[in-house]
Design brief:
This protein has 162 residues and is mainly beta. The chain has one domain: Pnp Oxidase, Chain A (Roll), CATH 2.30.110.10. The strands form 3 sheets. It has a 7-stranded antiparallel beta sheet with strand order 3-2-6-9-10-5-4. A 3-stranded antiparallel beta sheet has the order 1-11-12, with no helix packed on it. A hairpin with a 7-residue loop joins strand 7 and strand 8.
């Protein structure tokens, strides 16, 4: 019996995920970004998170070798930004409202939350690299509905109050 990769990917798409943009600085100091839906928390003490990136990505080397990155959690208003930064070669942050960070890689100005991270390690995970980061600083907004990805499409959850 052969393993159907396409069917496997579709089955994985049955698990709704949040959407985030990861930013880093190129060796020349230019900010770049990529959309991911593989962001998750790892540890509270010390504060650590991870995300995964396909080794075939044209941005893999920058993210695998960076000293730090910023993760911006996207809201429903970010669907166009998410789509743009998910495409190969579309890594420019031009025309996206940004916030400066202490670490360097910018955050999206209107993100639901952002996390400035130092790079801790990159682990092998099949055709992906698992990128582990230590959270140095973070911030969140109290309003906004998250952008979600489910069965190959964007969607939203209802905004809740804390």
């Amino acid at each position: 019996m052969s393993f159907d990769i396409r069917a496997f990917r579709q089955a994985l798409g049955s698990f709704p995920t949040g959407v985030a943009v990861i930013t880093a600085l190129t060796p020349g100091g230019v900010p770049m970004g990529i959309t991911v839906n593989s962001f998750t928390s790892v540890s509270l003490e010390p504060p650590m998170v991870l995300w995964c990136l396909d080794k075939k990505s044209d941005r893999y080397e920058v993210f695998a070798k960076t000293k730090g990155f910023t993760i911006s959690v996207l809201g429903t208003a970010h669907e166009e930004v998410s789509s743009r930064l998910a495409k190969p070669g579309s890594h420019s942050l031009e025309s996206i409202p940004l916030l400066e960070t202490e670490l360097g890689p910018p955050a999206l100005a209107d993100a639901l939350a952002f996390f400035e991270c130092s790079s801790e390690a990159v682990y092998e995970g099949g055709d992906h690299g698992i990128i582990l980061g230590r959270v140095l600083r973070f911030a969140r907004r109290d309003a906004g509905a998250p952008l979600v990805f489910f069965r190959g499409r964007y969607g939203a959850l209802a905004e809740t109050s804390d």
